[in-house]
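pasting for ref. prot 1 ->
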Amino acid sequence: MSKKLSGKDKQFTRKMQVRINRIDEALRELLAELD
């Protein structure tokens, strides 16, 4: 991975991270309900 990340790339990475975290939380809640 190159160290030269533009502001847009950093924003995109952060957005993806937030999205992944939200999906992860939703999955955990679903699994908890199924238990």
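and prot 2 ->
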Amino acid sequence: MVYDCIIIGCGVSGSISAYLLARQGFSVLAIEKLPKYGEKICGGWISHRSISQLRQIDIDANELLFRGAASIKHGKIFQYGDCEAFDYAPDQFSIGTTRNNFDVFLSEQAMNAGAKYIFGEYVKEVSQENELYLVNGHYARKVILAIGARQFNKDAVLNQIPAFGISELVVGKSKIKTDTFYFYYDIGMLLPMEGRNALNYFWIIPVSVNTWNIGMGFLTACKNMYRQFKYCKERYAVNLFENMKTILEPRGNMLGTVDFSGGICPYHITGDFSGTCNPETGEGILNAILSGIQVANEVTLELKNKCS
């Protein structure tokens, strides 16, 4: 069988592309290296703009609330000694969820639209035979790389140092509102000299009942990031909970703020792999959605032109 498109990587942008292509009638194969979805370095915040964008492509994110996600109606942003508090309009909200929950949800939308998924299969290379691509024994007319913040071609040279993120899942009875997210942008001058950057920030986001995602974003990777994360956790988070317990140890990874293809990729690229993540706004998921939509539109146009 020759697929219209093979998508390598089944995170947010990969599944969005798979969903959009499949519902137009294209044959889509999505390949994920992990045997099943797990947690990723992500705050788990699905902004109201993300929810609206999903609604425009007929995906109802409200279903996540029936899968244990948190409805977020308020936000507090601390910066330069001030606190900006805001409330969503009565008919608006954002969602806090685990990435595992969100990834499963999006993959189900794509599979329901007709996309085929293969889990636990690692793709080392993509070869070309005439006008077709060969991926792990599968042929396709088009290939999309959605593999996240990592290199696919060992010869690719990054033009700058990627941003870095650390996140952890904790449980505990909170002393703060469970329908509010918290962002701390005023941490720069509190950190050791090597960690100071006005754009580094710390977050506390509810993702389920008594479950929170706490994490920290660094504009660029630097020394002692885990020590800085621990410092901010002790300063901002620990005292806000009774009997806080870690259910997923803090983990870190590069963020998709640079083009990991190095500009030499002959395939379509999307999501963190293409450098669409914006570490300054906390809306990495929104950018992944938009990137997935954009590349799906590009592939759609090329496939239709080839058939005409």
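Residues 11 and 103 are 6 Å apart (CA to CA).
Confidence is low (pLDDT under 50) at residues 192-196.
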